[in-house]
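Q: My labmate handed me this sequence with no annotations at all. I'd like to see what the chain might look like in three dimensions before we decide whether it's worth expressing. Could you predict it?
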Amino acid sequence: MLREIEAVSVFSDSDEVSSGWLQVLQQEKIPYGCHADLAGRITIFPDKFPEEVYEYVKKGGIAVLEKPGDLSRIDLKRKGEGVISRFYFPLLGDDGITAPAVVDIYEGQGWGHFIVHEERLVKYGMKIGYHPLVLEVPWGQGFFYIISCRLSSLLMYYGDTLRRFSPFTEVTERVTAIDKSKISRVMVAVLKRAFERAGIPYIGLWYYPQDYSTVFMFRIDVDGVEGEITGRISDICEQYGIRTTFYVNMNLCQPEEDCLKKISRFHFIGNHGNIHNVFDTVYGNKDNIVTCERWLEKLFGEKTSLFSAPRGLWNEDLAVALEELGYTSSSDFGFYIDGFPFHPVVRGKPLKILQIPVHPYCVNRAQRYYKEKGLGKVSPEEVIEYYKKIIDHKEKLNEPILIYGHPNGLGYQSHIVLPAIFEYIRQKGIHTTSIPEFSDWWIRRENTKLQVFYDPDEDVYKIDVSDDVSLMIETKEPVKVGIKSRSITVKDRQIITGVMV
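A: Here is what I predict for the chain of 501 residues:
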């Protein structure tokens, strides 16, 4: 008899406590449920857990626990608690993750680690204070996955700081104080390992239209038009078919309205505020946004629903203001960098507005950093090589590529840098899109219903998808998967395949 598979269950009576895991599960689009009972084969406990979890695991369940403290029933005792500023996990290309956190300290070998004595030299060959981030503990027929900190809650915090943000440059920027996209990747890695242990294929919706490995987007924050420079950027982008979003600040651009009008209608206009700052009240943010909005509408003859925060700043009052004003997307590196789109959660409530993470490298900031360090100037060739590394890295991760710049800075190198980058994207065959177009795609993907069924008589998984959206299927064991009217066999790799409608 065919039965529906809802492999993952989040155990909590509070959406606010579950928000981090729900964000990741929605990004992955794998079938899941929220239950206050032990209903799924894999159950995530972002907070407290009942005594019955031991019996659940003993009978073959898989429990993911975050910062659980002592687990004396399975002979796992916490040695104490520590405060760390980063941890390490075997991620592709860069395993260092900036994340201030309170951690449970356990002994033993694990997956990833943190160091309680940070930035200390190793003396006498003794590496002390290294403790596991994730422990995999077999128990009966099942497994415990014990995460040493409340990893998922880190996705919900906001706050930014001046720091290095990329393994490919020493340049610093004021960005989110937490590497949230990397934390999401750690959580996905734990999920995939749990699926593997459960003997269930990891089936979700692919992140992009068709079988694209990634997508490329470009934006310009217009904090001053710089004469003909903004128009030149517009022309280059249009020449290469790159539909760019120009986020325009009123106060800094109003003196050059005539030059601003040279932005081609091929592109999109976004709101970057009246004054170049963010307020700590909903009213203050609304006034700043609406003032710019009315000016843009008068100047360009149409209203925008796209926003990026001045200075990359983000707070909950800004998010509420944007939500109440009906904005569809925002892109703010003080809140989130890199990774997949998501809906921010404010005071326990997911918003409709979509956050589109951007990579925060900025030529202006790089020039200032070089000057502070006595390194001379950042050449166009250095900028090109940096962006190429980011493009390659994100393609390997299957993450969206969104880079940005300003008329002042990148704009003065745009005739050299932009053709080189756009040609590189073309040569690699990376699909180009825009922020509003990708936002529309992501919402369509979110609204697509995916159901996975298991037929024990045929020993086959069957999939039903409500829209023509590609699938991702990952498994370590051979498994037959029926998609509508056809079947494929999956073994040892991820397969992306179109769905027959």
